[in-house]
Design a protein that fits this description.
The complex is a heterodimer of chains A (about 325) and B (about 425). Chain A is α/β, with parallel strands linked by helices. Chain A is about 35% helix and about 15% strand. In chain A, the strands form 2 sheets. In chain A, strands 7-6-5-8-9 form a 5-stranded parallel beta sheet. In chain A, strands 2-1-3-4 form a 4-stranded parallel beta sheet. In chain A, helix 1 crosses helix 5, helix 1 crosses helix 11 and helix 2 packs across helix 11. Chain B is α/β, with parallel strands linked by helices and about 425 residues long. Classes of the chains: A alpha/beta (about 325), B alpha/beta (about 425).
């Protein structure tokens, strides 16, 4: 084996952040780029169902997962994706690290950068923190979720899930329900669905779905039955507990009564409407248990499966991009 | 009353019909069937009432929609020694009021669905006029967390208010107004900057200086109204400033309406009938919140009523027993009873030609009905037969012995009056008849 890494597919020409070798958000990507990432990911879905999942496409590359916020599924998903692609993966959790000792974000970035990682997957509780970090490191940065800003791989895995079930994204009507104001998942999905030609409706209480979203060209509904009318996809969002005690929403009881997804409200949607949730779910708060567990309607577990394939594709495409440039 | 063969039918004949909702002021008649108005027309029954109908001869008096009082404290639950729905509703009926919006500042306060249902049940079982519940904006009226406004509205709350306690935190008010837009609910503010008003017991001015009583500056009101109007502009929430009392706040509300903001306000009868001089020798029955203001402010309230800047007239009925009022002025409870005096005090403005009669009735019928989303407050086929027959000119004197409320803390005892309700009808049934008292 030579020291030079294996040549990779040359990705599509691009003028966006992908060209700079980062995936910081969906905003600014074009339909070709998104389609390319989804096509790549599609190829890994079947691969991941095999017994031997190990590839050597990213052999020799180093991937650091830097998580400033707790995460189970996203971190595990990125870790598995990196390992299956053949990269060496380490996880850095903030708990017990020097960050807790007061190191600044940029100092941490410079320190890690000195170790020559090829890929940094970063999650941070502050919007924009991942963009800031990306300016300071040489490797590829993937946004694993920053504050209330973006969570691009979640939107891509949602898109892959939809595309596999419905055949296309274009022309679908998608309702995103819940705490839109604070959701990075919602923002990334809004961008992606807009770019790919789907109609997006936002549903939730006025305190969590402010009218300002209408300026992004979206329909805003506070009445869930009206909002769900004839939609193809229902995306539920997690409601953070601390928002439910009278500040944004008076109680979980009232929230579920008006905005929790149950069969009664779901009946307004198309008969074959698909239900999605990025997890983790609050059963009985934003979604009724029987709806969440409905194997004919709910794609919630499929979303998790698609997550690994999508992240494998993102790792591959970013590394290829860096190698090409 | 005799029971006739066609006894569901009642004909009000020989009336001066006056209905602000349809801008009607005409001699005519009105027919009631099954508790609803079935027909109203000029000249109706000129050639005799329908056969079998019970006929009520109005003798040319004014027949108007029953009055709607958007702000009254009814004592239940928790302060039954001061007032009950039964006694308050009798007082209301005697005052020509057919619907009361019950304030939510009871004990416990109305901040849960079960309590809204309690009010509705108690009203059905004990009140002789309609009582519609309001609910709190914040839990426990603490001004911190919003209540389950959606479910409270589904249970029947017609509006949201923390009673005589202002929602102090702008962030909480912002959330409440924003949240309320989900169902187009009405948020009612007690417009008083709480820290400015905290230590005051009457209007700050020469009178309070003379009496040595800590004052509530009048700007405490306009500060709160101005703050809230910014939040209304931001959120689009439907907002009502209750019992406004100063020229400055009336002016800013007038401007907000010109801008098209969803804003309404009301005035309590004592704020257009009295000024701070009524405090006199520390008369605690004149201690109200917001306090009685200067003569300039009082005249501004009258002008605001006349031009419609002030939408509604309310009683702000606040019954208190002697234990709460026989105290040094600053320690006495705020509030005065008002259900039986709203109408005669409003009619004073008609007799003095300061406010047109149609506008006064509008402020007592159509305007509060619209604000609270009620189907009453108008003389129209299909509307509830809630009516009041008013003798506009009858001279009389307000006396303690006539008060039907359990508490007698009126600021208007011994005041001469001109005009009063002589018959009050709720859902077609007479609940008050002066000739029988």
């Amino acid at each position: 084996m030579t020291k030079a890494a294996k040549p990779l597919d040359n990705p599509i020409p691009s003028s966006s952040q992908l060209a700079e070798g980062h995936l910081l958000g969906i905003e600014g990507l074009n339909p070709l780029e998104i389609g390319y990432l989804l096509d790549k990911a599609e190829g890994y879905v079947d691969h991941n169902r095999q017994v031997d999942k190990k590839l050597d496409i990213l052999k020799g590359r180093t991937q650091i997962n830097l998580f400033y916020e707790n995460s189970t599924r996203t971190r595990a998903s990125f870790e598995l994706a990196g390992k299956r692609m053949g990269a060496d993966v380490i996880n850095m959790a903030v708990e017990g690290s020097s960050i807790k000792k007061g190191e600044t974000l940029i100092d941490t970035a410079m320190t890690l950068n000195a170790m020559q990682p090829d890929i940094l997957v970063v999650r941070h509780d502050q919007s924009g923190a991942v963009n800031l970090l990306a300016q300071k490191v040489d490797g590829a940065v993937i946004n694993g979720g920053d504050g209330s800003h973006e969570h691009p791989t979640q939107a891509l895995l949602d898109a892959l899930t939809i595309r596999r079930r419905k055949g296309t994204l274009s022309g679908l009507t998608v309702a995103i329900c819940g705490d839109i104001a604070h959701s990075r998942v919602a923002r990334s999905n809004i961008h992606l669905l807009n770019i790919m030609g789907a109609q997006v409706r936002l549903i939730g209480p006025p305190t969590l779905v402010p009218k300002s979203f209408e300026r992004m060209g979206l329909e805003v509904h506070h009445d869930m039955r009206k909002g769900l009318k004839d939609v193809d996809i229902v995306m539920m969002l997690r409601l953070q507990m601390e928002r439910m005690q009278g500040s944004y929403v008076p109680s979980t009881n009232e929230y579920f009564h008006f905005w929790g997804l149950d069969y009664e409200k779901l009946s307004a949607a198309k008969p074959d409407a698909m239900i999605m949730h990025p997890g983790p779910m609050n059963r009985g708060v934003e979604i009724a248990t029987d709806v969440a567990d409905d194997i004919d309607r709910s794609a919630i577990r499929e979303q998790v499966e698609m997550g690994v394939a999508v992240r494998m594709a993102c790792l591959e495409v970013l590394c290829a991009q860096r190698q090409a440039s | 009353m005799s029971s006739l063969p066609n006894s569901g039918l009642k004909a009000f004949v020989n009336a001066r019909l006056m209905d602000p909702a349809s801008d009607l002021d005409v001699a005519g008649g009105l027919i009631v069937k099954d508790g609803k108005i079935s027909d109203v027309a000029p000249g109706l029954f000129a050639d005799g009432a329908p056969k079998g109908a019970e006929v009520i001869d109005c003798e040319g008096h004014l027949l108007a929609p029953g009055l709607i009082d958007a702000r009254a404290y009814l004592g239940e639950p928790g302060q039954e020694q001061k007032e009950t729905m039964a006694t308050a509703s009798q007082a209301a009926a005697a005052g020509g009021i057919t619907t009361i919006a019950a304030m939510a500042s009871t004990d416990p306060c109305i901040d849960e669905v079960a309590l809204v249902q309690y009010i509705t049940r108690r009203a059905r079982d004990t009140a002789i006029v309609n009582v519609v519940p309001t609910a709190c904006v914040t839990r426990g009226r603490r001004g911190e967390e919003i209540t389950e406004m959606g479910m409270l509205a589904e249970a029947g709350a017609v509006a949201f208010s923390d009673g005589h306690r202002a929602i102090g935190s702008p962030q909480v008010m912002r959330r409440a107004l924003a949240y309320a837009t989900g169902w187009d609910l009405l948020v009612i503010q007690h417009p008083e900057e709480p820290s400015m008003a905290a230590s005051g017991a009457m209007n700050a001015g020469e009178m309070s200086t003379r009496l040595g009583i800590p004052g509530v500056p009048s700007i405490a009101e306009v500060m709160m109204v101005e703050r809230d109007l910014r939040l209304v502009e931001m959120t689009g929430g439907r907002y009502h400033a209750a019992c406004i009392s100063t020229k400055a706040s009336i002016d800013v509300i007038r401007q907000a309406k010109d801008k098209g903001l969803p804003v309404t306000c009301s005035a309590a009868a004592h704020h257009f009938a009295l000024n701070e001089l009524a405090v006199g020798e520390y008369r605690t029955f004149t201690k109200v919140s917001p306090p009685l203001r200067s003569e300039e402010d009082r005249l501004a309230v009258v002008a605001g009523l006349a031009d419609g800047a002030i939408d509604c007239i309310v009683s702000d009925h606040s019954p208190h027993d002697q234990e709460a009022k026989r105290l040094p002025f600053a320690q006495a409870a705020d509030g005065a009873i008002g259900l039986q005096t709203v109408l005669p005090l409003a009619l004073e403005l008609h007799h003095t030609k300061q406010v047109p009669l149609m506008r006064l009735l509008d402020a007592l019928t159509r305007a509060p009905a619209k604000m609270l989303g009620l189907s009453s407050g108008r003389l129209a086929a299909g509307a509830p037969a809630d009516l009041v027959l008013i003798n506009l000119d009858m001279p009389w004197r307000i006396t303690e012995s006539m008060f039907l409320s359990r508490s007698k803390n009126s600021a208007f005892e011994d005041r001469p009056a001109q005009g009063r309700a002589i018959r009050t009808i709720v859902a077609g049934e007479t609940v008050f008849d002066l000739s029988e008292t």
